[in-house]
Amino acid sequence: MSNASRAVFLDYASLDLGDLDMAPLREAFGELILHDSSTPDQVVERLQGAQVAISNKVQLDARTIAACAELELILVAATGTNNVDLGAAREQGVSVCNCQGYGTPSVAQHSLMLLLALATRLPDYQRDIRAGRWQQSPMFCFLDHPIVELEGKTLGLLGHGELGGAVARLAEAFGMRVIFGQLPGRPPRADRLPLDELLPQVDALTLHCPLTPETRNLIDARELALMKPGAFLINTARGGLVNEQALADALRAGHLGGAATDVLTEEPPRNGNPLLAEDIPRLIVTPHSAWGSREARQRIVGQLAENAAGFLSGQAKRQVN
């Protein structure tokens, strides 16, 4: 592959909202073709003659990789590589590089925003103001929804990588005590509590771990029942970490103080989801937007360009296969 390579970005609109500087990526290739989105039956045709495929979430399976004879490099515009058949790419001699750590500030602040919104009952007060309830109050203030201070409370973290560490620092700035849980399938550590010991202690639990066979439904009905009455649950990691029906049931039963999720098991949720029912109290759902600050998306552009340059120089960066 050379600097004159042809690169095709298959789902460019998932990254750029018209607010990014794409010069670093354009300068990395001789030709850069941008497609807002690509359906499965368009991918092979669009990648013909291309040495580089860039994808955020478009699937690049074994059949697709085999049908693209000139393909040498796949750049994933995200951290997760589950949309690429890594084994097939390896067999075909196609390198795969991802992006890492680009969204840490954005996701960390989103996690704390969700926790603060639950603790201060922000959605409930906003709803009541729109309904005119404050306007009709006999007093200057309207305090129908109990507010919780974070200071002095205990935050449990599952996943203590770069992102989990950033969330821990923000929580400590609010005066919270932070403790970490042991993830299944990981070697035990003295500074990680088993889940059954962690859950009864925490006033809030945030998830920042990958979705693996060991962590699927990590938080199920049993785990939710172990949490303190009134505790908060925040998930900005992956939808499959939480049993969504069990969470809906726990919220309806009033066991939890509230929950917030930026992720669902199917995205977008075209086929419905238990957490989208209108009768679930104290639930906030955001549309997988935690990562999407302009700054984070610009970092992805920079990392894609760095990964391409590294591959060209024989010193691949962030290679995953």
UniProtKB/TrEMBL annotation:
Domain named D-isomer specific 2-hydroxyacid dehydrogenase NAD-binding: residues: 112-290
Gene3D superfamilies according to UniProt: NAD(P)-binding Rossmann-like Domain
D-isomer specific 2-hydroxyacid dehydrogenase catalytic domain location: 18-318
Record's keyword annotation contains Membrane: no
Top-level taxon of the source organism: Bacteria
One of the Pfam families matching this protein, by short name: 2-Hacid_dh
One GO MF term: oxidoreductase activity, acting on the CH-OH group of donors, NAD or NADP as acceptor
Keywords noted in UniProt: NAD, Oxidoreductase
The UniProt record lists the keyword Oxidoreductase: yes
Protein family membership: Belongs to the D-isomer specific 2-hydroxyacid dehydrogenase family.
NCBIfam families on file: PRK06487.1
Protein name, entry field: 2-hydroxyacid dehydrogenase
Organism the protein comes from: Phytopseudomonas dryadis
